[in-house]
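hey so i finally got around to running both of the ones u sent me last week. sorry it took forever, my laptop kept dying halfway thru and i had to restart like 3 times lol. anyway pasting them below in the order u listed, first the sequence line then the structure token line for each. didnt double check formatting much so if smth looks off just lmk and ill redo it

first one:
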Amino acid sequence: MEPWYSFHWFDPDLWAQFRFTNPLALYLIPTIGLLLAIRYYLHRGGQQRLNLSLGSIGGRSQAERLNENAVRANQILISSLRFLLPGSILIAMSLLLVALARPQLVETHRVEQSEGIDIMLAMDVSSSMTETDLPPNRLAAAKRVAQTFINGRKSDRIGLVVFAGEAFSLCPLTTDHDLLKQYLSELDDKMIDASGTAIGDALARCINRMRESGVLSQDSTQSVKKRSKIVILISDGDNTAGNLDPITAARLAKAFNIRLYTIAVGRVTRSGTSASTIDEGILKTIAGIGSGSFFRAIDAGRLRSVFAQIDRLEKAPVRMLVYEDVQDCYRAYLYWAISFLLFALCLKTTIVGNILED
């Protein structure tokens, strides 16, 4: 902090940063100036003056006229010094009012706190996800939109399960979203050799991950125990593989208070050599059992809107903590005011003051 006698305290940029606790005191400053002006004119009107006219004296030399002008200029300068005393009092009283207004420098810090939620992404990587009705293909489109979704969930723990004929937990619940996105970028239809679509097993893997996270958080705070948990399952095929029925897995998820969101991607296509069917019924059923929602995404735009809708539905409450670092600055102006008052007192009580008033 600058010393009180520094002229830094009169910097306009500094004044623009001040927050005044009692700003009404500043409005009294013009009143003090007005009262001093009234006193001056009343005092001036009460004084008696004798005006003498010496006329013009001819024949003066140029040197005499210059000397006379210099004397007159000195008289004007000395006469103006009579305002030194009231000016000092005006500045002192003004600075006292500034100190009374209590200027403060306030630095505000805002901190957002959110407990977040637990999200498991279950991604179908079966061969049917290579269909190109969602360019460049269904799997690539789903990966791209999922990565965008992850970018907007900064305070959430997110995990990844992949499935085809079998299901594997690829990434546990984590806040290291860069690592998670790297796993997503490496997904392809060659990861799992077993053919088919094991939706029930994928849900079971997600439930196990979230159940384990609940056990690990028992020694933490109560708020962590109550973290919301959801599963987002993305698939384009029937449940044709696996050891666990999807409905049973959905009921198990409901028992653990895990909401299920299912997304069917792609269009139903048929040709002379291949057929692609989407069992919307089972995806709708498990979403209903899991207190979630079913979505149909027939193109990339619709897939993005589906994730955006889930993003709006699953928002953890955010607490805004505001910290204010307050620095009072009134002492500097108080010391300046005292200095000007002492200066005015010296002028008033010494011969200097009498000379200035004459």
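and the second one:
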Amino acid sequence: MQLLTKEQTAALLANGAQSANGDIDPYPVVKLFTPDAQATWLLTELDPTDPDLAFGLCDLGLGCPELGYVRLSEIREVRGRPRLPVERDLWFTAAGPLSAYAAAARRAERIVELEAVA
């Protein structure tokens, strides 16, 4: 499976370009996860000058999710014990901005789903 669709890549790059011009709090564009471990990534942007470099909420399943940068090439290499590759959540639709996911993740000590924001 492809980690990102063309549409997601375009949205992530657009967020990255906007972020370079100032602080933004976009909704996550894509959710990646390990089907055989507890790692999850909610990505909001790609660096337009280095599209392998993504920003988002990263949770390696250790109880301390954090905002930061990660390389897509490194995510592609992550495997759990059965050695299954990282997958894209095909049904993920963000319910709020990244800051809301980060706050909920800090409280829960893992990335959790949000209730839809009205």
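quick thing i noticed on the 2nd:
The chain has a mean pLDDT of 93.
anyway thats it, ttyl
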